[in-house]
Amino acid sequence: MTDHSILIPILIQLTTALLLLFMWNRIHLQRRASVIGNAIGLAYAIYLFQKVYHQGILVTQGGGWEAPYGITFAADLFSASMILIASASGLAVSIFAAGSMSKRRSMFVFFPIFHFLLMGIIGSFLAGDLFNLYVWFELIIIASFGLITFGGGKRQLEGALKYVTLNLLASILFITGIAFLYGLTGTLNMADLALKTAEVENKNLLTITALFFFVGLGIKTAVFPLYFWLPASYHTPLSAISAIFGGLLTKVGVYTMLRIFSLFFLPDPFVSNVITVVAIFTLIAGAMGAMIQNDLRKLFSWLIVCHIGFMIAGLGMYTTIAIAGAVFYLFHDIIVKTNLFMISGLIHRITGSFKLKKLGGFYAHYPSKTLLIAIPLFSLVGIPPLSGFWPKLLLINGGLDTGSYWLIASILVASFITLFAIGKVWIEVFWKKGATVTPKKHFVTFSELRYIHKVGFVLPIAALGAISLFLAFGAGWVYTVSEQIAQELMNPESYIEAILNQNN
Amino acid sequence: MVILLAMMVGLMYAAGIYLVLRRSLVKLIIGLILLGNAANLLIFLIGGITRGEPPVIGEGEFTLGEIYADPLPQALILTAIVIGFGLQAFAMVLLEQEYREAGVTDLDSLKDEDTDDQ
Hints:
Chain A is an all-alpha fold.
């Protein structure tokens, strides 16, 4: 169905970003405008989700040219729910940033770049054309370059250097893949590609092209041999920035992988094996890395790598139930990972440190905040009935169906090591006798903040915790949605039909 | 011509990857630029080279002639060049800043920041 209004989520972010640019140096106004912009974005995302849920796939063509020629934007249930989740965590980070950033730092251009980043993320969820997707990716990385170097500082620049280099390489690989695909099929429209790649005679070349995409997206997604930039850079920027990076950036890669490998690079046994092996090693390597870290944010960064493995595992098994598990995990992961980095920001603001050795006594001093923090931490581990448990159950179910016992084993091992790592955080930060941290000069501790800023710290953590609880106790409904998404991904006929044949 | 360009693209990729693997920061950025340009040239090459047949509809006609250069790769390359230019400019400024802050010109001297500095 043609519906131009699916572009509105992009336009909301663009308008907000542009308006924010005109509020240069008026930081109070910027904070409010950012939160309001994201609130409108979230409200529209909810509306779009229920519209797509009831009406099916909505499509619009750039410039009114028909499908393989115009630039296609399509919102199916997968896109719409990703936009919904991304908008929710965008709003949370916006509130958190408004509360947590000191005036001096946010004087710069944080909020406009942040909205450009969200625009890129939402755009890549809607793109129905590979080259358009590439352009959204570039928009995301240039905005994230701006954010990761934001504020300067030596450590941050070092992290940024690794991040920038690897992301540039990933883009080059991605566009090389696009070039090959264009040479093979003569089209870049994803729905059209689904029809054309089936007719390509040189299957080996197609497999190589698929691997170009896998490596290019793999760097962005941080899968096993390509993840080293992530733990080297994600702990360096401000917590609000880490939160949006950890929550959303790698997940855009996962989304794209799920999309393209189900639509036009149907995995042959070789590609499937590659994906499965990569998933196993990602799970184990990420978990091992997390185990030995003594810095809160580094530990969380390694857990991002580890948990990417769950979603890639779903893709590796390639059955409806496993893909449903991966999609469910994707929703859960975005919310929880965003929350984790905000929590690390809160802990740092209260105690003045990220180091596990220096922290302690949190539970004795701040029991209610501890309870708040417990929800995302335990959701992450997947203690039933919290939200991490259900998608893992689906993945293991899928593994039993396909007989991928190595995958099941590594999923279980990774879950146990996650439990260990979170247990370590719990003991060191919350239970251990309070160590006294002497904060640096000019460090404003949490208790000295104004009330409104305190709310800015705690409210988004509570809100995302509530969403995690919803994903846990509304698991039945979330499962229905994920299963429908998985079925649409596995049987893309309706998606192709909606884009290529629009007579209404 | 096609063979020549194909070899050129291959060489540019090889040189780019070689430079990226070097330790010097300046060579790293040159390598990235080479790789970016190689990718652009690859799109151009893969779109098919048609000589002297611009994709322009002639006067009084309503369709393109029988042979014409595919305009899409050219549009793609133009976009990719502009984007690549912006990113490379950013990367260069970053290197400059890195050099000023830390005095680093050698990639090996970038620590893993495992040191306890807080």
